[in-house]
Amino acid sequence: MFRLIRFVILCMLAFVAGVFYERKNTADACKAVGGEMVAGLCIAQGGS
Question: What is the pTM of this model?
């Protein structure tokens, strides 16, 4: 039983780590095009 609980906890931790990893990559890509992250969205500065 403990193995199952440990497996679920590790899966949840891996999922959360993946979410933070992707958010960081998205923020870096947004900054690379001159934008700014606001509430999880990339707002381009004076873009067309």
Answer: 0.72
